[in-house]
Amino acid sequence: MSGTHPQDLGLVTLRLPVGAYASILHRITGILLTGAVVLGVVLLRDSLQGAGAFRQVAGRIGGPWGHVIGPLAVWAAAQHLFGGMRHLAHDAGWGFGRDRSRAAALTVIVLALFAGLGALWAWP
Ligand code: HEM
Questions:
Q1: How confident is the model at residue 6 (pLDDT cuts 50, 70, 90)?
Q2: Domains and CATH numbers, the chain
Q3: Would the CB of 67 count as within 6 Å of ligand 1?
Q4: How many A from CA of 83 to the centre of ligand 1?
Q5: Residue 87 Cβ contacting ligand 1 at under 6 Å
Q6: What secondary structure does DSSP assign to 104-119, as a single string?
Q7: For ligand 1, mutation pick of 24, 26, 37, 85 (most atoms within 8 Å of CB)
Q8: Using one digit for the tens of pLDDT, what is the confidence trace for 102-117?
Q9: Where residue 86 falls among pLDDT bands split at 50, 70, 90?
Q10: Which of 13, 29, 69, 103 is the most buried (most CB within 10 A)?
Q11: How far apart are CA 95 and CA 18, in angstroms?
Q12: What does the DSSP assignment read for 30-63?
């Protein structure tokens, strides 16, 4: 087969527009958020077993894993929230021009990064 069509569509070599990354991140963070909600409910349930259990959960949240999972969950929530607003804006017919689309996707990613870094900085 001959022609000028691309031969290699490998995910690593393919350069996608920033909007595509925002969409992929939206899917990934949707899945992460589902896990975060389950984890949050389990931690809340455990913390309600008594004063000792509450202190134990608080210790876990303030521990090394808490410092990884907590800010990651905040980043995922921010990325999904802002990304969801971008999707809803698209549904309303806004943000399809190339420049506007790029700017919106980049804004979503940068704002979410700031939220995640802020959470990392402020984590107890
Ligand atoms: C705990 C809260 C949430 C969870 C667990 C969650 C989870 C998910 C998941 C798993 C998907 C499917 C992703 C995919 O397959 O592409 C999704 C899609 C979506 N979510 Fe959320 N979500 C949450 C909150 C929100 C919020 C607050 C918004 C509004 C800003 C939102 C807006 C959307 C939209 C618009 C889609 C569809 C995106 C598309 O058209 O591809 N979500 N969500």
A1: low
A2: 18-122 (1.20.1300.10)
A3: no
A4: 9
A5: yes
A6: HHHHHHHHHHHHHHHH
A7: 26
A8: 999 999 999 999 999 9
A9: very high
A10: 29
A11: 13
A12: HHHHHHHHHHHHHHHHHHTT-HHHHHHHHHHHHS
pTM for this entry: 0.88
Question: Which tens digit of pLDDT belongs to each residue from 16-47?
Answer: 899 999 999 999 999 999 999 999 999 999 99
Whether the CB-CB separation of 104 and 89 falls below 8 Å is answered with yes
CA-only gyration radius of the chain, Å: 19
Which residue, among 106, 122, 31, 108, has the nearest Cα to 71 in the 3D structure? 122
Nearest protein CA to atom 36 of ligand 1, as residue: 84
The encoded tokens of residue 1 equal: 């087969």
Contact 76, 27 (CB under 8 A): no
